[in-house]
Amino acid sequence: MESSATLAFPQHPYIYFATPSSNKGCPFWPCKQRNIQSTRLQCNKMFVPGFGEGSPEAKAASNLHNFFNYTAVKIVAAQLESYNPEAYQELMEFLSKHSLDDGDKFCATMMRESPRHKSLALRILEVRSAYCKNDFEWDNLKLLATKMVNDSNTRLMRDYVLETSLAENERNE
Fold first, then answer.
1. Is 0.85 topped by the overall pTM?
2. 18, 38, 51, 141: which has the fewest C-beta neighbours closer than 10 Å?
3. Cβ 82 vs Cβ 55: under 8 Å
């Protein structure tokens, strides 16, 4: 027997519209108070603690920056494999010794390795810039990320409801 459940949650459950008497009592208050009596604050964005001076978007941008480097290395490797096997082999050897986790560090190290490696690094920088500006589908990223979050939330809630309803049925029997 198949069962389904739909749970409705507010779109932004942690938005504070009332002005608290003190920021100390509400550590997640997203806005700074200027004058409680003359200003009523209304914020429509969630405050996200734990990112220091940055933001979740800055963290995502940093990860995308390194991902663009990874993508550029894959593109350059595929290009070299077909028309310059010697340069391809040099790139593969360099990759086996150096991590792609930090794209800038990878390219900086490669530039200092040798003149041939420098030209490979410059090509990688060129490709990552072109890919980011021209080929990466930013709108599709937002759609896919939103779909993944929504699908995952639905699946997790459905699994929980099924699990708890089965446990409830077993207790009642």
1. no
2. 38
3. no
